[in-house]
Design goal:
heterodimer, A: alpha+beta, 7-stranded mixed sheet, 5-stranded mixed sheet, 16 helices, B: alpha+beta, 5 helices
């Protein structure tokens, strides 16, 4: 996708010194306190502030959940500005309009800001150079920049950016600043140390959980066990008797981006919001302890008998029907091609509901004072939060300020702001700053979850094992319905086809059909790391191996043949075969399985070597190749692939969310288990060199991991895994 | 509410809290060391790990009343001056943290392992670190960093 440049990014916001007030964090002997800090300097551009002594502050418009935006977005600015990132101060943007979109999601941060932020940096650099050239009365061609200085190439005189910024701010903004070529980069494109790492090894990094304000009260919250629901009655007597408890209040939980009414939604079911009871106290412990003493009688509103099993049965029934077809995956006439095939192959795959379970449970600190609102929270998109709070509280957008903290993981969960709006609702009710902390049980039992999906696959082969027809029927919940109340009963959810459309999956099938059947999950669902690509690619790439097996082809050869017109895929597969020694003869019981997928504009292929042992199957090694375009920080790209391997394997072999009688069966990490040290396979990761525009990094490593594993398991044991998660020890 | 005397990071603190208050919330909300994190509240994830007389414990399930005034509690803020513990240095060199939320607990668990076992095997690392979850999946880098910190400590001793 070609990035477009937002004009808003280049408007000069001030021609004289701008005094920018921001909130920062400072340490004192008692720990960390929030303090008002003032950034004084000239802000030629919203993202760049330079003060008179040359100190540069860069504003990062993409919150960091561990994926590395805290480094790489400011580095786009710093690279073109010609200042080492180590010498700048990084601040997070606050959700205000002048920064444009500020959502970390869809592995889009670099893809969408690659040109705009570099242009912002180059614009300011050219203005500084012009100011220096004017002063020296020479041409800008005789000037260069390095490390925060403009250099006179003839006299070798130097002027610091701080000396020039006032003058530069009065100059016209260049219409077309020249961006560096890849070969001119001095910071981007090589392994570099992330600036947030030191603060994450000594406890000084500030997460949402760590925010402390004077006069702050703490809140714990009691949700409907059915997620949706209304409070019929509640008894707070015992809770109020706990030392330190100040209030037991009725509050609510809103389901995402509105409308926030009881009857919101295309089907008029009561899914706009649910009731909740909050305990507000002088310490979190008092609020948490008292929460357990509140007695609530819930009206489940018809959601009291829902169950995962029932949902999957509905999805399997839906799978018997042709769904609403995706245009972006249509090739030829699938039905006819299947009819003409010599062999038909079918497989129905099931992927479970998943909780994001980031290490830092949802939390937010909010202070509502009349029509002024200030938030400190781990959120993936402060601008979206400003929108939602404005609608929810009826407060003007410009009166809402969001202080984005580091996120202790998010994986999509913190891109909706139900927990922040709860804290806002409570702050308004008790007229004090309120810090709301969800428990791990709230996190795991309340959703929103990745939707569980049924993929019904069908393929047709000729006598020689060539694939003639390929069908992928998606059956399950729509995230777009859940988040935006969109009606997907008669439409293919446009998000749900990701990872398997023709651009992401350019297999040259003569006939192909993807379709979607909507099934009501009766619980809120949400994007979870790599979203539908995580479920779609499991089915798609497993079924590719089923077709290879039935057609008596090698799985790699079949893919290479069908991807012959997609050279980047072929290059990735060949590199994978090389680093994994794919064609080596392996001993009995040892097998290698592969899978490849493009998602979020990057291609990743994994090869997994497994060994059949007496106690089941063991993963010996994971080999990975990623082509994410020009690798901005190759070490971080590797780290993200490592991360996706672990997160994806946890989802394949450890955990799932199930529900019976309207309630989630899992509650904490003893029931929603995740991989731990000692359960992680060794890995070898290769980052493809590239001079193409950068693609996504935070998610593309995930989709092919489960099918690569299951393909390896099949080759080692003859057992085809079609339902996740599965138990490695019992195969 | 009762008064408790605690020694945290070599400093004495008098706190006035309920006897069942977990050490985690005393450290974070009363004393103000927020490097120790809340993750599960049941001792399952290790995000709240601190050292009690050098041994890793789960502060989320340790009531303040179970501690003696002579007990020495170390949080991530007290592990070293200026993040100079070999484990912290190795963590930076290997670029271990991603989101970073679990890392205080991981680092304290690793430092306790090396204090009792200066040259741990992979199996020793698995055993010592299996109580600490990392959802970002930084396990491989942590393993490398522990080996490299062990090497560094041994080299320093020899010289």
């Amino acid at each position: 996708m070609k990035s477009t440049t937002s004009r808003r990014d280049f408007l000069r916001i001030s021609t004289t010194s701008a005094f920018v007030l921001a909130l920062g964090f400072s340490s004192d002997s008692k720990g960390r306190q929030l303090q008002k800090v003032t950034t004084v300097g000239v802000q030629i551009n919203p993202y760049i502030n330079i003060n008179a002594v040359g100190k540069v502050t860069l504003f990062n418009p993409r919150p960091d959940m561990g994926q590395g935006t805290y480094q790489i977005l400011p580095m786009l600015l710093a690279e073109e500005l010609d200042i080492p990132l180590e010498r700048v101060e990084i601040q997070m943007t606050d959700g205000s309009d002048r920064f444009g979109s500020q959502l970390s999601g869809g592995s889009s941060s670099v893809r969408t800001r690659w040109i705009p932020l570099r242009t912002a940096g180059a614009t300011v650099r050219e203005m500084l150079v012009q100011a220096a050239a004017n002063r020296w009365k020479i041409s800008t061609n005789d000037c260069s920049t390095k490390d925060g200085f403009v250099i006179n190439n003839q006299s070798k005189a130097k002027l610091s950016y701080g000396d020039l910024v006032e003058e530069a701010s009065h100059l016209p903004v260049p219409a077309k600043p020249k961006l560096k070529s890849f070969s001119e980069f001095t910071q981007l494109g090589k392994p570099s140390m992330r600036p947030d790492v030191p603060a994450k090894v000594d406890g000084t990094a500030i997460f949402g959980m760590d925010v402390q304000l004077p006069g702050m009260l703490y809140a714990s919250i009691l949700h409907s066990p059915y997620i949706y629901g209304k409070v019929q009655s509640y008894d707070a007597t015992k809770a109020m008797a706990v030392t330190g408890v100040r209030f037991v209040l009725k509050t609510e939980r809103v389901f995402f981006h509105g409308p926030y009414s009881d009857s919101g939604g295309f089907d008029q079911k009561l899914r706009g919001k649910s009731d909740a009871i909050a305990v507000v106290g002088e310490s979190y412990w008092s609020a948490l302890k008292a929460k357990k003493l509140v007695q609530v009688s819930w009206n489940a509103l018809g959601f009291g008998e829902t169950a995962t099993e029932q949902y999957f049965n509905q999805a399997k029934a839906a799978a018997l029907h042709e769904g609403n077809e995706y245009k972006d995956a249509k090739v030829g006439d699938f039905a006819k091609a299947l009819q003409l095939s010599d062999y038909k192959v079918q497989g129905t795959y099931q992927t479970p509901f998943m909780s994001h379970a980031p290490m830092e449970p949802c939390n937010a600190t909010v202070f509502v004072q009349g029509d002024q609102v200030e938030v400190w929270a781990p959120v993936q998109g402060p601008d979206g939060l400003v929108n939602d709070l404005s609608t929810y509280l009826g407060v003007k957008r410009e009166n809402i300020k969001v202080n984005v903290t580091f996120m202790g993981g998010a994986f999509g969960r913190k891109a909706v702001f139900d927990f922040v709006m709860q804290a806002a609702n409570l702050s308004k009710q008790v007229n004090a700053p309120v810090k709301l902390i969800w428990t791990r049980e709230d996190d795991i039992q309340q959703g929103p979850y990745r939707p569980g999906m049924i993929s019904a696959m069908q393929g047709g082969l000729d006598k020689d094992g060539n694939v003639l027809a390929f069908e992928h029927r998606l059956n399950g919940a729509s995230i777009m319905s859940s988040v935006f109340k969109a009606d997907m009963r008669n439409n293919p959810d446009p998000w749900a086809g990701e990872g398997i459309n023709l651009e992401d999956s350019p297999y040259a099938f003569p006939a192909r059909r993807n379709s979607f059947n909507w099934v009501d999950p009766q619980i809120p669902v949400l994007w979870w790391r790599s979203v539908y690509a995580s479920t779609n690619v499991f089915a798609q790439e497993s079924f590719m191996d089923e077709l290879a097996f039935e057609g008596e082809k090698d799985p790699l050869d079949l893919r290479l043949h069908l991807l012959r017109d997609a050279p980047k895929f072929v290059t990735v597969l060949n590199k994978l075969a090389e680093i994994s020694d794919y064609r080596a003869k392996r001993k009995q019981g040892v097998s290698i399985g592969i899978a490849i997928a493009r998602s979020f504009a990057s291609i990743v292929a994994h090869a997994i070597v497994v060994e059949k042992q007496n106690t089941g199957v063991k993963i010996k090694h994971v080999y990975s190749v990623i082509d994410c375009g020009f690798p901005l920080n190759p070490d971080n790209i590797k780290a993200q692939v490592e991360s996706n391997i672990v997160y994806g394997l946890s989802a394949a072999i450890c955990n799932q969310i199930t529900r019976t009688h309207g309630k989630t069966d899992q509650s904490n990490f003893h029931e929603y288990t995740v991989l731990r040290q000692g359960e992680i396979p060794a890995s070898t990761i290769f980052v493809m060199p590239s001079q193409e525009e950068p693609g996504g990094v935070g998610e593309p490593g995930l989709p092919p991991i489960a099918p690569a594993l299951c393909n390896a398991v099949f080759l080692a044991t003859g057992k085809r895994i079609r339902t996740l998660p599965f138990d490695m020890s019992s195969i | 509410m009762s008064i408790y005397q605690l020694s945290v990071n070599k400093k004495k603190h008098r706190v006035d809290v309920d006897s069942d208050t977990p050490l985690l919330w005393v450290i974070r909300d009363v004393i103000g060391y927020t490097g120790t994190k809340f993750g599960c509240g049941m001792g399952l994830c290790g995000a709240c790990t601190v050292l009690l007389n050098g041994t890793p414990i789960r502060s989320c399930s340790t009531p303040v009343s179970s501690l003696k005034p002579t007990d020495k509690i170390t949080t991530i803020e007290g592990l070293s001056e200026n993040a100079t513990h070999p484990v912290q240095e190795a963590w930076v060199e290997a670029q271990v943290p991603q989101c970073g939320y679990c890392q205080s607990g991981q680092i304290l668990a690793a430092s306790a392992l090396l204090a009792s076992n200066p040259n741990p095997s992979d199996e020793d690392i698995d055993t010592a670190m299996s109580g600490n979850i990392c959802r970002c999946g930084t396990y491989t880098r942590m393993r490398q960093a522990i080996h490299s910190a062990a090497h560094k400590i041994q080299t320093a001793k020899k010289s």
